[in-house]
Each structure stands twice: as structure tokens, then as C-alpha cells.
């Protein structure tokens, strides 16, 4: 049997790349890692410990000191994945709007990125992994055998996110969700440290008008071309 490859799936927020990545991992028996959840967990830690204020000013010195004592793990709960922050299940909390509003600021801090990139490389060192994020194909695994970059229009993405939040019982306005999507894109694309961008050798997929089945099939076909 061919050795297991590394699959890097990057792209804009709320493009459904996690759903795609999770599906492929289950389909081919690989491990799925949601790198965004790691940035969200650090953000939640910073919020709980008042290392970020309401104006999104971060106490970078204290956050950097705290990084070594932040443990992030993933565990499976049936076919759901749970993110653990120092042993506590924070899967639901890290998806809330207040965390979404702060996460790009935390994710732009170089020390945070260095720490999380090191953890991500450790998790993927043996291959057989599908990891999604913003810089997986460019920075975390530049040698990944399959790189995909997912995009879709900001309106389509905001609509998806809005529905997800409503389903979870969070009361939000569509306009606020759209503003958050657009703002996160901007911060992610313009930060100095490994900004969001398509790796030169990544395959581009715009899923604005694709069904979930169509995009899954496209991804599986690309995967099979590598294996
Ligand atoms: O994929 P997501 O929306 O859960 O990611 C949350 C935030 O984390 C997003 O605003 C950008 C950041 N992120 C990042 O900078 N690098 C990654 N590899 C993954 C996420």
C-alpha cells in the first residue's frame, strides 16, 4: 500500500473547508485536524484570562508567557470532534461569535503562530492527515502532496455561517455575520506573519455554486490522483 500522504486544505472562513476536510479524512481513514480550532482555543483562553480587552488590545507579554501552559488536544466523540483546552471540552464555546470576533487578532500574533505551527507539525509528522486552515499549504506543510485552496463569495459564506449560528441558538444579525466574515478575510490576508494566501501549487476550488456532494467528489478525485 502507498504511504499515507499529507493533505492541506486552506481557504477563506466559512467556505465549508472543515466539512470537506473532515469528510475526506473519514472517507480515506486519515486523521482530521482543524487548525482554526487551535487559534480559537487560544483566543478563548485569552478572553477568559483577560489578556484581550473589549477593544481587542492584547497583553502580548502575558499571552506569550502563558502559551507554554495552554494545552490543546482533540478527541473523537462518535463522528464529532471535540477540542479540549487544558482538558476541558470547549468545542461549542470556541464557535461563538465573541470568539470569532477576537480570533483574527490573536492569530496575527507571531508567538501564537510559532507555537501552534510547531504543534500542528508534530500532529502531522507521520502523514495520514487532513489539516485545514489558512497557512497549512504555505507554512505548516509546504511539502504536502495535496494542497487545496477553497473560496466562495463573502455573501454565500456569511449566509452559511448565519444559518449555523441560528441552528445553535445564537441570536445574531446577518449583517453582523457578513461584517465579521469580511473583516476576518481582511485581517487574515494582510497580517505580516504567514498571511492567508493560496500556495502556488495548491488547487483552487470555488464552491459558491457547488453542492456538498459535488465538492466532496472533486476532492476525493484529486486525492486519488495522488495515491
Ligand atoms: O477556520 P476558522 O474560521 O475556525 O479559523 C479561525 C481563525 O483562525 C481565522 O480567523 C483565521 C485563523 N487561522 C489562522 O490564522 N491560521 C490557521 N491555520 C487557521 C486559522
Task: Note down, in words, how this protein is organized.
This protein is of the alpha/beta class. The chain contains 9 helices and 8 strands. The chain has helices at residues 17-28, 35-48, 60-66, 97-107, 110-123, 136-140, 154-167, 174-190, 212-226, and strands at residues 6-11, 31-34, 72-77, 80-85, 88-89, 129-133, 146-151, 203-206. It starts with 5 loop residues before the first strand and ends with a helix. The mean pLDDT is 94. 2'-deoxycytidine-5'-monophosphate is lined by residues 13, 35-36, 39-40, 103-104, 107, 133-136, 184, 188.
Task: Break the fold down into its secondary structure elements and pairings.
Elements: E1 6-11, H1 17-28, E2 31-34, H2 35-48, H3 60-66, E3 72-77, E4 80-85, E5 88-89, H4 97-107, H5 110-123, E6 129-133, H6 136-140, E7 146-151, H7 154-167, H8 174-190, E8 203-206, H9 212-226
Parallel strand pairs: 1-6, 1-7, 2-6, 7-8
Antiparallel strand pairs: 3-4, 4-5
Helix pairs in contact: 1-9, 2-4, 2-5, 4-8, 7-8
This protein binds 2'-deoxycytidine-5'-monophosphate.
2'-deoxycytidine-5'-monophosphate is lined by residues 13, 35-36, 39-40, 103-104, 107, 133-136, 184, 188.
Amino acid at each position: 500500500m502507498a504511504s499515507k500522504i499529507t493533505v492541506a486544505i486552506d481557504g477563506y472562513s466559512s467556505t465549508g473547508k472543515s466539512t470537506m476536510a473532515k469528510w475526506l479524512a473519514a472517507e480515506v481513514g486519515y486523521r482530521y485536524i482543524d487548525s482554526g480550532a487551535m487559534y480559537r482555543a487560544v483566543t478563548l483562553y485569552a478572553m477568559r484570562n483577560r489578556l484581550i480587552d473589549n477593544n481587542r488590545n492584547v497583553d502580548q507579554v502575558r499571552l506569550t508567557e502563558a502559551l507554554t501552559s495552554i494545552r490543546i488536544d482533540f478527541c473523537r466523540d462518535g463522528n464529532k470532534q471535540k477540542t479540549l483546552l487544558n482538558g476541558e471540552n470547549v468545542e461549542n464555546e470556541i464557535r461563538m461569535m465573541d470568539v470569532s470576533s477576537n480570533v483574527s487578532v490573536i492569530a496575527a500574533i507571531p508567538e501564537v503562530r510559532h507555537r501552534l505551527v510547531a504543534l500542528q507539525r508534530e500532529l502531522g509528522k507521520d502523514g495520514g492527515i487532513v489539516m485545514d486552515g489558512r497557512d497549512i499549504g504555505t507554512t505548516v506543510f509546504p511539502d504536502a502532496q495535496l494542497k487545496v485552496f477553497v473560496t466562495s463569495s463573502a455573501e454565500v459564506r456569511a449566509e452559511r455561517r448565519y444559518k449555523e449560528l441560528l441552528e445553535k441558538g445564537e441570536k445574531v444579525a446577518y449583517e453582523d455575520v457578513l461584517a465579521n466574515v469580511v473583516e476576518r478575510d481582511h485581517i487574515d490576508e494582510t497580517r505580516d506573519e504567514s498571511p492567508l494566501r493560496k500556495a502556488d501549487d495548491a488547487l483552487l476550488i470555488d464552491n459558491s455554486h457547488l453542492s456538498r456532494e459535488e465538492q466532496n467528489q472533486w476532492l476525493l478525485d484529486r486525492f486519488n490522483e495522488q495515491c
